[in-house]
Design brief:
- The protein is an alpha+beta fold and 173 residues long.
- 20% of the residues lie in helices and 37% in strands.
- The strands form 2 sheets. Strands 2, 3, 4, 5, 6 and 7 form a 6-stranded antiparallel sheet that branches.
- The chain is elongated.
Amino acid sequence: MRVELADIISCENKEMSRQVEIELMSFESKLGQFPIVDRAPFVLKFTNENHKRLLIQGETEVTIAIPCDRCLENVDKKFPIVIDKEFDLTGSNVEKSMEESNYMIGTNLDVDQLIFGEILVSWPMKVLCNEDCKGICKRCGANLNLTECQCQKTEPDPRMAAIQDIFNKFKEV
């Protein structure tokens, strides 16, 4: 969703509140594509302070389904988003400060790009379905939280293969 800010930028000490919606259906980054499970409309407040600063403020929450890092089951992760942006409106710095952000296109605010940037900054390093998640079996791929697999649990150390051969020869005698 885009919001036109030309009126607020041109009028000194003007305040405006606008209900906006997030149109993003999924969050796409180099990590992959993650569906957005829950998002709600929220209110953004725009304030022109004495033709010096443009303030953009608002709060919302977005829920994204992210796979657990151990068992790959989807986990609904909530991202509380607090928007508190400030643009300098004095002189030639207007275009410069707005060009530095990828969510301002001229006098239009791209709400989806703004939310995308806030989610990207707060993306977790590790996501677990629960603290004691057992993960998946390395051999058969079974989710160890749901079932016990019949795979051999101990893996022989390849560095000890020569010694293991010696023990096997003594068993044959």
